[in-house]
Specification:
The structure is a homodimer. By secondary structure, the first copy, chain A, is mainly beta. Chain A contains 1 helix and 17 strands. The first copy, chain A, has one domain: Ureidoglycolate hydrolase (Jelly Rolls, Sandwich), CATH 2.60.120. The model of chain A has no long low-confidence stretch (mean pLDDT 97).
Chain lengths: 164, 164
């Protein structure tokens, strides 16, 4: 079984797959007479198709144990999908480049400091993978008609580890 | 000075102004082989205008002291605006009905248990008003051209109180 080692999530390393939703490095400005700082426009929401529209939902995920056995990834051809944590628990972010319609070797990232992520439309990614404890997330993704889910099951699962 | 007493925020009492973003009473279903519960489509995102599009931003707000002196409200003619707390700190939600383009007497609500809210397009509302401590929020609102802000300053401020 091939082992994938998770790296710390950074905007640079994740750039080809989507956005890291974080205040670090984000453009910001003061509003409300200086009572509030707005970190502005942190992710690109994509909602393709004639009746595509954005949704706000909440996900409550059970934690996964490490090492993770990664058996599948999925992608959403019609829309982006953002996950913003409502807790301090980190989660695993797994993505793959696409090779002619098939996912390549997965890359794994570990969030820290409440980083959220936004998968760009049609990017192969793992399912929501919280660690340590039951964890809530805000999801911002696409509603509307059309097939917006494609799943791919690997012939051999990958093992994903997090360095100590 | 007229005093407004904040009530507990409920979906029913807030219904004419927008959505309460909460798991209580929300439709949900299991995903990821039972590892995750999705509380689905909790708020209606509105982005009017030819290039209107949704934005994900983060707000970091300083706390306000009670009683609050409410001097103004605002509204966004072209889009909804959602605030989802990233902390346990409650915040005040202040809204007004519209009377021929002018806000009526404010109504105040106090959030609990991490309730978020989504102001419907063109609803008069107060600015973000966290209590107790510096508080982070996810904002989902509208980007794009056109004038999406209207402010109204009251002749006399209101005093907003929270019952013990």
């Amino acid at each position: 079984m091939t082992t994938i080692t998770a790296s710390p999530l950074t905007a640079e390393s994740f750039n080809e797959f989507g956005d890291v939703i974080q205040t670090d490095g984000a453009a910001s400005f003061e509003i409300n007479q200086g009572m509030c700082t707005r970190f502005h426009d942190l992710a690109k929401i994509e909602t393709s198709g004639p009746d595509g529209h954005p949704l706000i939902s909440l996900a409550r995920g059970k934690p996964y144990r490490l090492p993770l056995h990664l058996t599948m990834v999925e992608r959403h051809p019609l829309g982006s999908q953002a996950f913003i944590p409502l807790s301090d628990n980190p989660f695993l972010v797994i993505v793959c480049q696409d090779n002619n319609g098939v996912p390549g070797i997965p890359q794994a990232f570990l969030t820290a400091n409440r980083q959220g992520i936004n998968y760009r439309q049609n990017i192969w990614h793992g399912i929501l993978t919280p660690l340590h404890d039951m964890s809530d997330f805000i999801i911002i993704d696409r509603g509307g008609g059309g097939n917006n889910l494609e799943e791919y099951f690997f012939d051999q699962p990958y093992q994903v580890i997090v360095p100590e």
